Batch of 2 targets.
Target 1
Amino acid sequence: MPAPHVIQDYETSQFPTWCPGCGNFGIWTALKQALLELNIEPHKTVIVFGIGCSGNESNFVKAYGFHGLHGRALPVAEGVALANSGLTTIVVGGDGDGYGEGMAHFIHTIRANPNITYIVHDNQVYSLTKGQTSPTSEHGFKTPSTPFGNPDSPVNPITLAITAGAGFVARGFAGDAGHLTGLIKAAIQHRGFSLVDVFQPCVTFNGTNTFKWFYGKVVKLETLKHDPSNRDAAWKQAQNTDKLPIGIFYQKDGPTLADEFPVLAKEPLVDQSPTTRKIGGLLGKMG
Ligand code: SF4
């Protein structure tokens, strides 16, 4: 198979069915561009998708794909990364899937620190089911499920991830695909769990958090002279709701889940003989 050299090499024959102008297009473009620039071939990439409009991307990116159960993409990806460390493992899902149904998996995957990149299409609404309040919807947000306004406070995935101990926490904006490409590249290159939460305007069901609204609010952390190695500073920046910082909030290397199993240090599990796996597993248990 010839090495990919243009972004179209990461596309299938299917053109996205998303609404015209949807923020998903910017994230789709940034992901393909990041894979291209990192020279990661489609057959060396596996993407596990959650349920939601973003999950439809499983039809539009050329890579190995698994369209998981609602909220259950992360544990599937964790298994993939452990079984075949020779693949680049990415998870693509939405805010409802990841921070609602999948919230427990979000926290516990951070604790385990498998070598996967999690890209969240965060449009602050359940869009596939036609516009109900999601975990990241603003307080007071009116939808068919909350006609008098959302009574809950929104989840802040950035502060949550930092607090839970994630080693790479970033946020991007679908309206700046070039900047987002850089974030996704850095996330894939990070060894361990990496989160890229992405502001993704839903042009059909979210009339509040629009492209225009975000253009007036987002600010790049690079311009704030933010130091991503400073966890306290990252946490403070993540709480800023007046302006909405995008970029890498926090990054720190640490042992990954695979480092806990010596059998995985030699070569990917799928390439090992059953005998090697048995002996290696015992050694791993003996620690
Ligand atoms: Fe995009 Fe919203 Fe349309 Fe879904 S409903 S494709 S998120 S614009």
Target 2
Amino acid sequence: MTRVAFIGLGRMGHGMAGRYLDAGFTVTLWNRSKTKAEDLIARGAKWATSPEDAAIDADAVVTMVADDEASRAVWLGPKGAAKTMKSGTIAIECSTVSYDHAREMGRELNARGLIYIDCPVTGLPDAATAGKLTLLVGANAADLERAQPFLAPIGSTIRHFGAVGSGTVYKLINNLMGAIQIAGLAEGLAIAEQAGLDMKLVLESIQAGVAASPQVQRHSKRMVARDFSGATFTAALRHKDAAYAVKLAESLLANKPPVSRAAVEAYAQAKATMPDEDEGRMIELVSRPKKPS
Ligand code: NAP
């Protein structure tokens, strides 16, 4: 049986790990907090005491953790997976990390005889559970072919952008544009509310209008209703992605990107007050009425 080590069982990783069990893989799990693994262990997954322990005998190691710091810890930390991975084993980074980090991990793991591909994803946790994520891959073609059997259980679409790091470039611009749209939507709705418009009509008009991207469609309903139940993507993660994207932008563009920087600032405020809440609660920060002068 094909053996996969899966590291990081948050909102996304939990569903993705379950897909490998459904597909008949031998699955070894590690997460910083074990409670999130209990039901997967009951379904047949093995628990490892560290990433290093999880990677022993694995044919591929898949990570889905929060950020650069977490990724570095699980690959290269004192008990990192790279310690026990055999030469030629495939390392699949599904976490959204920075461009510099993805390239650095590629170099570090290649130097240890390992294959590294960056494979951030789009899709919400329900798509992760259903194996219907879109996988945004950076890898050389031969490495991608070797990784295919480990990508099939988790993704329904693979978009191959080029060499290691290129999947991450696309993921960061995708999420930066999302950050700008959500922050802009929050401000637009706040203005409409304070101006006393009929919000049912505003919502109907937004949904039928030209600015209604899927992101705007989804968040406009939740923001107008102030219904943020079932947080799928947190303010802290949105801030992280936008900040990584702006860092990349500033390494490539002559002028600092003003709109992108404003979105980072907006999400820095949301992160400071509600890091683990749904990103759409951004509207609560901007909708307070001005005091009469
Ligand atoms: P999440 O629910 O907050 O889970 C974060 C995961 O990272 C948990 O397993 C957490 O462990 C682990 N982690 C955090 N810091 C760590 C550290 N220092 N060392 C080791 N493990 C650490 O996040 P998520 O929504 O699943 O997102 C995971 C990744 O997918 C992120 O990079 C995110 O940007 C990306 N993503 C998310 C979505 C979405 O809709 N949620 C969609 C696409 C991509 P604990 O359980 O112990 O806290």
